[in-house]
Amino acid sequence: MAVSRVSYVTVFAALVFAMIALPAAVQAQSSAPAPAPTSDGTSIDQGIACVLMLVALVLTYLIHTADFCFNF
Which of 35, 54, 38 has the alpha carbon at shortest distance from 46? Predict the structure, then answer.
């Protein structure tokens, strides 16, 4: 019976220590905010290239359609 009281006291002391020490340790480890995202221009370049490819596709379609219509 004496052994179980000693182990309960040990566990209780460890829990009290954890309740006191852990909140202080958590607040001491606050991390710095993440840096703001920056654009290096590659996404803008890819967007412009995509628009130019679509314009070229539409122009090619229109030119071939006009050429097909005037053959008859």
Answer: 54
